[in-house]
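for the writeup, i need someone to sanity check this before i put it in the appendix. the sequnce is what the collaborator sent (i think, or maybe the updated version? ugh). structure was predicted straight from it, no edits. if anything looks off just tell me and ill rerun, i have time this weekend
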Amino acid sequence: MTSAPPISVVVTAHQRKKYLMEAVKSALNQTLERDLYEVIVVKDFEDAGIDQQLASLRVRTIQSADLRNGAMASLGVEAARGEVISFLDDDDLFAPQKLGRVLEAFRGGADYFHNGRLFINESGRPIGAKSLSGVVQGEGKARYLRWMLVNSADQNSSSTSIRRELLDEKTLGQVELSADTYYFVCALLKGKKLVFDPSPLTLYRVHGQQSGWELSSADAYLKRQAASTEAYSRDYSLFAELLAGTPYEGAAVYFSSYNELARLALPSPFGPRAAFSRALGAAASMLAFPPTSAKEFAYFFSLLLTPFIPDPLRRARAGLSMRLKLAAQRTQGGARG
C-alpha cells in the first residue's frame, strides 16, 4: 500500500450527474503532484457509466443511502487517508492551483483554510466574486468572530479545507444541510490558525438545482424554502450545543437568528401575534452582532419587516423571487440565492 497523501479531496454528489465529472476533473487537473492528494467521491445515486469513468481516473467512490449533507461528507472523511480534507460539491470546480495553495497553507501551520470563490453560471461564465482575507489565531478567533461571520467564513464547503483531526465524523453525520458551517464551528473550537485566502480558488456554480431552490412553481418553491429553514434550525441547535460556554457561542445566535427571520418571512403557521413575538426575539438576539453596513441593514430590516406582511403578499413576494431566479438563469445562467 502506498503512503498516505497529505490531502484528501472529498466530493459529495447529490443526484446532479451532469456536473459531477467536470468537478472531479477539476480536482485532478491540479498543478500539485498527483501523489500528494487523493480524490474520493461520495454519491447518493447509482450510474454504471459514471462509476466506470471514476475508476479509470483512480478515484474511489462510496455509495450513500443517507442524503443528508453531513452524513455524506462524514463517509468521505472516514475513508480519507490525508491529514487535510478539502471538500468539493459536485456542481463546483477547483482552480488548477487550489490544492497547491492548500498544501502550502497547512505546511505553514494552518488548521482551517478558506479561499475566495468566483461565481459562474451553468455554462461556466463568471458572474461575480466573493472573498475575505486574513489570518486569525489564538484569542483573535473571539475578537474577530463577527468579522468572520459577516464575511461568510462559514459558507461554501468547496472553499473549505480543514485538518482532519478537528472533525468528528459522528457529529458531522448528524448535520442535515450546513456541513460547511460545521467545519467552521470545529475550527473555532479546536483550530489554532485560520487562514482566509482571497484568491478565487473555487468556481461556485449558480443554478436551479441548488439546495433550497425549487423553481417549478411558487408553491414548490415555498415548500422547499420552508423545509430548508427547518433543517437549518435543527443544525444550528446542534451547533449551539457544541459552542455553549465557549467564547464563540455568539456564532450560534447569529446563525439561528438570521434563519429564524428567514423562516418567518415565509407564509407563517404561527399567526400574527406569535410571528410578531418570534421576530422581535430574533431581532433582539441579533443585537450581539448588529449590522454595520448599509447592505447589512437593508437585508436585516427586510427580514425583520416581512413577518408582518399578510400571507397573500408573502406568497406573491416568493413568486416574484422565484421568477427573478428563473429570469436570471435564462439570461446569465444563475442568480445568487
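The longest helix spans residues 218-243. The radius of gyration is 20 Å.
thx in advance!!
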